[in-house]
Structures are given as C-alpha cells and as structure tokens.
C-alpha cells in the first residue's frame, strides 16, 4: 500500500488496505478520502481509473480497464461519495461513468463490452467486440446482483432492482426490475408511499 501511494495520483489522503492490487498504477487517480478495501483489484490501462472524493470501493471489487485494442472510450470514472459494493465487477473497455452519490450493491456487474456473433462460420472470439459504454447518473441505486450491459444509461435517482439484467436505458427517477429489466414505477408520478416506512427506523 505504501508503494502504491508513491505512484498513484492522489488529491489528498486516501485509505488503501492490505491486499489491494493495482496494475498500471500511474493511470489511477484517487480523490481525497477514497477507501479501497481488502482484495480490491484495479487494472488501469490507458484511459485509466478515476475515483472521486469520499468514494468507497469495497472488498474484492474488480475495476478492470483492459485496452490493448486502442479502444477510444476505455476508462472508469466514479464521482464523489459513491459506493462500489463487495464483489462488484466493472469492465471499462467502452468507458464507465458513475456519478456522485451512486450506490452499487454487492456483486453488481457493469460490462461495457460485448461480442459480435453474427457470423456462424467463425468462432465468436474471432469476430471482434463492441464497446459503447455505460453511464450511471447521480443518486442512482443499483441493487445487489444486477447486471448492466454495454450501451446502457441509468438516469438520475433511478433504482435498478436486485438481480435485474439491464439491456436498455433506465429513465431518471424510475424503478426497473426483472430479466430483462423493465420500468415498473415513475417515482415522481407515482412515489413510494411514505407510510410504508412509518413503523421502520430509518438511519
């Protein structure tokens, strides 16, 4: 951890636990107060990884920018005060942008890359990839085990339910659930009833 601190670009102090692994550390920028938990792996090929102030990357999360094909959008950018939960996988070949105050639950996957498989005469591994990117706007909450596929945009303060597979955009202030995910509620037109929390402690 001490060696990484000497190589990384850091805007103030950050906490890096033992067991954190970082490849291409000179392409990583950490904001003030960032926390990298035990077992976190950052692979920051050109395009790099930027984590904003006071954001937390929890145990065994993998942030991977694998860019040996000169992909123009590769990289991972995370805003301020966001949380990447335990065991999350972020593949940033097409670029991943996560806003401020975003929560990714445990074992969420953001996969900003896809395979071409139109030609049945050739192995899929020989047909190339697409990499459109993924964006998650400020204040969104992605539930545990959800998977966001390449090209998806999740709007401000949207909620993606646990285990959902998101194949198309999720509008701001909406709730999307299922596989494939579909929007089931507009939180402005049809807000969650406040009385459902009346008997629950909210911390």
Question: Any overview of this molecule?
Answer:
It is a single chain. With about 200 residues, this protein is mostly beta strands. Helix content is about 5%, strand content about 35%. The chain contains 1 helix and 25 strands. It has one helix spanning about 1-5; strands at about 10, 15, 20-25, 30, 35, 40-45, 50, 55, 60-65, 75-80, 85, 90, 95-100, 105, 110, 115, 130, 135, 140, 145-150, 155, 160, 165, 175, 180-185. The strands form 4 sheets. The chain has a 9-stranded mixed beta sheet, with no helix packed on it. A 7-stranded parallel beta sheet has the order 1-4-7-10-13-18-21. Strands 3-6-9-12-15-20-23 form a 7-stranded parallel beta sheet, with no helix packed on it. The longest helix is centred in the first third of the chain and has 6 residues, at about 1-5. The radius of gyration is 18 Å and the shape is flat. The model has no long low-confidence stretch (mean pLDDT about 95).
Compact overview of the structure:
This protein has one helix and 25 strands. With 203 residues, it is mostly beta strands.
Q: What layout of secondary structure does this protein have?
A:
Layout: H1 2-7, E1 9-10, E2 15-16, E3 21-23, E4 28-30, E5 35-36, E6 41-44, E7 49-51, E8 56-57, E9 62-65, E10 76-78, E11 83-84, E12 89-91, E13 96-98, E14 103-104, E15 109-111, E16 114-115, E17 129-130, E18 134-136, E19 141-142, E20 147-149, E21 153-154, E22 159-160, E23 165-166, E24 174-177, E25 182-186
Parallel strand pairs: 1-4, 2-5, 3-6, 4-7, 5-8, 6-9, 7-10, 8-11, 9-12, 10-13, 11-14, 12-15, 13-18, 14-19, 15-20, 18-21, 19-22, 20-23, 22-24
Antiparallel strand pairs: 16-17, 24-25
